[in-house]
């Protein structure tokens, strides 16, 4: 596995592969990898000739008081996992390499960036789209793989690619869950044993929503209230939002007719966990 830490080094590697007719697939991550990330690597390896993974804890997508400094990091472990999974190139730049002192530019997808997690974390998605566009320009991928666990991020990246006519295909990877249903996340390490046990209520609450739709309930207010009521039974849980939206536009739905997705964000102690699920409509 080749490792690049400088922008010019990564660009040179990407240009070399492109000149040789290789299809580059790319998985951007913030590291502290788990099976969810590695499943994206598997997809990338199948979709391209060369698999590139980046590890970069992006400072500009963290707000004041958020967990940038304590975000879990273990690059040596990540390197071993990526090598075992067949990653060809690891791009591991520093913050100063990505953002020189005179850096001034930001990229923002209007409307989609100010709702849901964007409402709770102002500026977050502006930081995400800025770094992803930079990474696309550096890695020069033909295809990039993003997980559905960060569903709003996935929708925003797809819109940025469409609106800016970027020549990269966006592929979505399914959510990978623990055996008890909790979506895998690097931030799960923040949970104490009680919070970890209670956090399974997120998956179960979405199954409740699915069951209500199967039973013929279509009013989203009724479903959201039931989901919120279920989560509130767990004393460590503090709800940020529960929404049912159109999967393409993220617009809130009043009634479910065909396609819909439930998205939620809930705090358990220091951890803010997000999850989502497609709602099957009979």
What can you see in these coordinates?
A 6-stranded parallel beta sheet has the order 1-4-3-2-5-6, with helices on both faces. Helix 6 (124-139) crosses helix 7 (151-163). Helices cover 38% and strands 20% of the residues. Strand 3, helix 3 and strand 4 form a beta-alpha-beta unit. The chain contains 10 helices and 9 strands. The chain is an alpha/beta fold. The mean pLDDT is 98. The protein has 2 domains: 2-173, 3-Layer(aba) Sandwich (Rossmann fold); 186-279, Pantoate--beta-alanine Ligase, Chain: A,domain 2.
Output the structural class: alpha/beta
The CATH topology of the largest domain corresponds to Rossmann fold
Shape: globular
Topology as a string of helices (H) and strands (E): EHEHEHEHHHEHEHHHEEE
Strand content: 15-25%
* Quaternary: single chain
Number of domains: 2
Poorly predicted sequence stretches spanning 5 or more consecutive residues = none
CATH architecture descriptor of the largest domain: 3-Layer(aba) Sandwich
- Cα-atom Rg, whole angstroms? 19 Å
Give the overall pLDDT as a whole number.
Answer: 98
User: What is the total tally of β strands?
Assistant: 9
Spatial strand sequence of the major β-sheet: 1-4-3-2-5-6
Tally of DSSP helical segments: 10
What is the CA-CA span between the terminal residues? 47 Å
Q: Using the coordinates above, name the CATH class of the largest domain.
A: Alpha Beta
Name the CATH homologous superfamily of the largest domain. Answer: HUPs
């Amino acid at each position: 596995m080749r490792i690049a830490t400088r922008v010019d080094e990564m660009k040179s590697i990407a240009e070399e592969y492109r000149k040789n007719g290789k299809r580059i697939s790319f998985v951007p991550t913030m590291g502290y990898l788990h099976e969810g990330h590695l499943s994206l690597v598997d997809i990338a390896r199948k979709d391209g000739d060369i698999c590139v993974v980046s590890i970069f804890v992006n400072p500009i997508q963290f707000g004041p008081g958020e967990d940038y400094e304590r975000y879990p990091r273990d690059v040596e472990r990540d390197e071993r996992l990526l090598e075992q999974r067949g990653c060809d190139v690891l791009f591991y730049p520093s913050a100063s390499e990505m953002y020189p002192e005179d850096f001034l530019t930001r990229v923002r997808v209007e409307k989609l960036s100010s709702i849901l997690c964007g409402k709770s974390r102002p500026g977050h998605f502006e930081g995400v789209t800025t770094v992803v566009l930079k990474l696309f320009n550096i890695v020069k991928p033909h295809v990039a793989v993003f997980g559905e666990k960060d569903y709003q991020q996935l929708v925003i990246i797809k819109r940025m690619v469409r609106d800016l006519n970027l020549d990269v295909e966006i592929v979505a990877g399914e959510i990978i869950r623990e055996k008890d249903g909790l979506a895998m996340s690097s931030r799960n390490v923040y949970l104490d044993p009680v919070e970890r046990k209670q956090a399974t209520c997120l998956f179960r609450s979405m199954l409740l929503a699915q069951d209500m739709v199967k039973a013929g309930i279509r009013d989203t207010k009724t479903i959201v209230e039931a989901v919120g009521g279920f989560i509130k039974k767990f004393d460590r849980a503090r709800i940020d939002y529960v929404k049912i939206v159109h999967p393409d536009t993220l617009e809130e739905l009043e009634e479910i007719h065909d396609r819909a997705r439930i998205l939620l964000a809930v705090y358990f102690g220091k951890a803010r966990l997000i999850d989502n699920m497609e709602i099957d409509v009979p």
